[in-house]
Predict the structure.
Amino acid sequence: METRIAVTDHFDVIVAGGGTAGVVAAVVAARMGSKTLLVERSGSLGGLTTGGLMGVMWGTSDGLSGIGKEIFQRLLEIGGAQGGNIIPFDTEALKQVLCGMIKEVNVHLLLYSMVVDVIKEGDQIRGVVVEEKQGERLCSPK
Ligand SMILES: Cc1cc2nc3c(=O)[nH]c(=O)nc-3n(C[C@H](O)[C@H](O)[C@H](O)COP(=O)(O)OP(=O)(O)OC[C@H]3O[C@@H](n4cnc5c(N)ncnc54)[C@H](O)[C@@H]3O)c2cc1C
């Protein structure tokens, strides 16, 4: 089937997948000043951690550092987690925290959208094809 590209957008950083890894990558890229796109095929952020109803992080809260600690503290602030030797957390609260962090730094977020292909020049990825409700769009580096 012929691929139809509806819209072309340019970004410094494009992250495929809004699980915890993807959200953190997108937030950090945007905090460093990059125009960032985050593409997530489901309707919420957090991937397996939220959608898989994980509910408990194994590890002591005192041992957290960096952005993991920041996420935990944001969860604590809204009553979405408890500290201790294991960390029980509310998956809906984590979705809220991750979404807030994305919004704060103006990451361009596409939900219900899937990266379905990449455009390559030699070994370099020049863009990704994103399939969403309106059709397909090509997103490429600036
Ligand atoms: C029961 C259970 C308990 C666990 N406990 C712990 C724990 O205590 N501590 C710990 O550190 N880890 C734990 N893990 C592991 C942890 O959940 C995973 O390591 C973590 O969720 C991986 O995050 P991720 O962002 O890399 O991937 P995922 O959470 O898998 O996220 C990937 C995201 O990418 C999206 N996606 C995929 N393909 C595309 C595409 N083509 N286009 C757009 N979006 C796409 C998916 O929808 C998803 O949202 C546990 C896992 C399970 C199942």
Notes: The radius of gyration is 17 Å. Residues 1-7 have pLDDT under 50 and may be disordered. The first helix runs from residue 20 to 31. Helices lie at 20-31, 48-51, 66-77, 91-104.
